[in-house]
């Protein structure tokens, strides 16, 4: 069966046209269309014959890509018999027609109408409501609406969807509208899924690490952050001057701190730094540049230092502004987030 979609919106043009001339076409050269139209006008038509006639007319319009008359016909069909068990199907076809013409807001409206006003119906082996939700997620740009669609898919069709992916996508939608408690809950549900470390989500190449960093940061003391970049820079420089590895170990971020080359991928597990600065400060003369690197910007900064090792002497200490709207007292502060080995590329 043709894959179909659904939305619901009453256009003044549709209502006017249908009222004046009726939606069932007449005088068509297509014999099949004319035959089904005659059947539909018969009195005392049983349910099966009515369905066959409506479906035949709709398929004829679809085959001709006559979406305008298809929409007129199907919307009038639903208006004439609002209790018809097949209305979910006719509205799905209406939505499909709108999508084919690029009228996505109308398509979205009809998809929602199927879910809100029509009982569910199997289209082939798929639920009409499930098809609507899938397509609504594809075309809707409203974050609150998308949150509703994701939640419905997860709650109503848990066996037909990839819940791991949907938990992640739902969390990002909550982020967009600033519902941080709900976002953190969804990220936690995502991380609880056994396949979350390995899942590949289109458009989210670092999904697992992103979620884990956010949850770990939320669960941490967050006591390594500084009020300003200047305060962080001063503290780190003083610690280096005094060879205080204890202070440096205290200043560095306790979540997601990395140490890697400029070419290395931040998602590489080997980039995570678990060592103490003590191992590199004893017996070495550590120095730093008086000014931050010229590539620094309002959200990120680099401090060139050297003397750490005979193998890789130069380390760039990487400072960044904390992006954590969950906690306004922490959001916008600064942290020492990592180390880049070697001269900048």
Uncertain runs: 1-29
**Global Rg:** 30 Å
Number of contiguous helices = 14
Task: Order the strands across the largest sheet as they lie in space.
Answer: 3-7-6-5-4
Taken as a percent bin, the fraction of beta residues is: 5-15%
- How far the N terminus sits from the C terminus, by CA atoms, comes to 56 Å
| Extended strand count | 7
What order do the helices and strands follow? HHHHHHEEHHHHHHHEHEEEE
Architecture overview:
The chain has helices at 12-21, 31-40, 47-63, 67-80, 87-100, 104-117, 128-139, 143-156, 163-176, 180-192, 207-219, 229-241, 245-251, 278-281, and strands at residues 122-123, 126-127, 258-261, 287-288, 300-306, 315-321, 334-341. It is α+β, with helices and mostly antiparallel strands and 345 residues long. The chain folds into 3 domains: 1-140, Serine Threonine Protein Phosphatase 5, Tetratricopeptide repeat (Alpha Horseshoe); 146-219; 229-341, Nuclear Transport Factor 2, Chain: A. A hairpin with a 2-residue loop joins β1 and β2 (126-127). The protein is rod-shaped. Mean pLDDT is 89; it is low at 1-29.
